[in-house]
Amino acid sequence: MSELKNKNVLLIIGGGIAAFKAIDIVRLLKEERANVNVILTHAGENFVTSISLSQLSGNRVRTDLFDMTGELEMSHIELSRKSDIIIVAPATADLIAKMANGQANDLASTTLLAANKPIIILPSMNVKMWEHPATKININKLRDYEVEVLGPDEGEMACGEYGFGRMLEPIDLLNYLKVFYSSEKALSKFSAIVTAGPTHEPIDPVRYIANRSSGKQGYAIAEALAKAGVKTTLISGPTILKKPKDVNVLYVETAHEMLNMVKKYMPTDIAIFAAAVADWKVTNYSPDKMKKNGTGKNLLELEENPNILETITKNIEQRPKIVIGFAAETKDLIKEAKIKFNSKGADWILANDVSAKNNVFGSDRNSICFISKDDLEEWNEMSKVEVAQKLVKRIIKEIS
Ligand code: CTP
C-alpha cells in the first residue's frame, strides 16, 4: 500500500517557471492516491491554469483570500488544519521572504502563517537570487521555524545561467514524502546515538584546547534520524546550536566525558560519530590560571584522548548494527579517508575536506565523499541538512 494513500496534501504553487513541474507533483500524488488541494498564487496563474490543476487534483483550486465561496466552503485556516502536510512548490524568493517575515497578504502567505502542519518548500529561483544574503537569512529563519527546505538543485536555468536554483524534480519530492511517511513506522523500533561538535580540553580554569567544529552536521543528522522515527540521543560537545526537535540531547565538555556518555547509551542500533573530538588532553591541568614560564616552551603536557569510535567498533558484544564515522582531512582526502575506513572499523566513513579554502567548519554546506566496503561516491556539495537526509535515507535502506 502506498505510504501516501489518503494523506491530505496542500500544494501551494508560487509564480515561477518551475510552476509547470507542480502539475507533475499533483499527478504523482494522485497516482499514490493522496488527496490534493491546491492554492495557486496570482503570480503562479501566469504559468499554469486553475482548470488543469482542478481537473488533475479533483478539487477546486483556490486563488483568493477573500473568495467568499471559498471562505464559506473551507477557510484558509481549515485548509491548513485539514491537511497532513503543506508543500510549497515552486517556493519563489518572494514567497520565501513572506514566510520568513510573517507576512499574510494573500491566500498562500496567510495559510502558511496559520499552518500547524509540517511544511516542505522547494525553492526555485535564479542562482544570484538564491545566493543573495537576504535569501540566505530567510532560508535560515525558515529552518529555525522547522520548515523543511528541499533543494534547490544545481543546473542550467530557464534564464540561461548556471548554478543552484533549479527546483527539485517532482519524483525526488515524491521519494522524500514516501520516506517521510514510511520511515516513522519502519525506523521507530531503532535507537541511535550521534556525537557532535568539538570537545574542550581544559588547560586551567580559563583556557582550553578546542577546534573549529560548529556541530551543525551532527545536529542535522540527529534531527533527520528523529524525523525518521529513530529514538535518537545526541551527545554534544559545546556548541551554540538549538536543541533539535524530538532528540534527547546530552551535553559534555571533554573527550573522556563524551566517551563515558556514549558507553552509557550502549547498546544502540545506529552510532554516528560526527564530533570533532580533540586528539589530546592536558595532563598538567592547573587549578589556578597558568602563568607564563618566560620561555613559552613546554608549558603543556599532553596525552592522547581515547578514540570513541574505535572503542565502540571494537566492542564485539555491543557493536551497533551500523557505525558511521567522519574523516576530517585537509589534504589527500580520499587516501586518508580510506586509511581511516580500514583502521577504525566503521561501516561507512563520510570524508570531508576541512581545509580553510573549503570553509566547512561553521558553514551550512558540506561536500562529502562516502566510503563503504564496496562503494566510493563523491556527493555534490549540498547543505548539511541535505547531507543528513541523504545519509538517513541510506540508513533506512540498509537497516529496514
Ligand atoms: N573520533 C572519535 N574519538 C576521537 C577522535 C575521533 O570518536 N578521539 C571519531 C570522529 O568523530 C570521526 C572519526 O573518529 O568520526 C575520525 O575523526 P578524525 O578527527 O578525522 O580522525 P582521528 O582519528 O582523530 O585522526 P587524525 O586526527 O589523526 O586524522
CATH homology group of the largest domain: CoaB-like
CATH class of the largest domain: Alpha Beta
Global morphology: elongated
Instruction: Compute the number of structural domains.
Output: 2
Architecture per CATH nomenclature, i.e. the level-2 architecture of the largest domain: 3-Layer(aba) Sandwich
For the sheet with most strands, the description reads: 8 strands, mixed
Instruction: Please state the average pLDDT score.
Output: 91
Unique bound compounds: cytidine-5'-triphosphate
Q: Count of helical segments?
A: 14
Terminal Cα span? 17 Å
CATH topology of the largest domain: Rossmann fold
Helix content: 25-40%
Largest sheet: spatial strand order = 12-11-8-13-16-17-19-20
Task: Point out poorly predicted stretches.
Answer: none
Nearest-angstrom radius of gyration?
24 Å
How would you describe this protein?
With 400 residues, the protein is α/β, with parallel strands linked by helices. The chain has 2 domains: 173 residues, Rossmann fold (3-Layer(aba) Sandwich); 212 residues, CoaB-like (Rossmann fold, 3-Layer(aba) Sandwich), CATH 3.40.50.10300. The strands form 6 sheets. Strands 12-11-8-13-16-17-19-20 form an 8-stranded mixed β-sheet, sandwiched between helices. It has a 5-stranded parallel β-sheet with strand order 2-1-3-4-5, with helices on both faces. A two-stranded antiparallel ribbon has the order 6-7. The two termini are 17 Å apart. The site of cytidine-5'-triphosphate has 16 residues, from helix 12 and strand 16. Cytidine-5'-triphosphate binds next to helix 12 and strand 16.
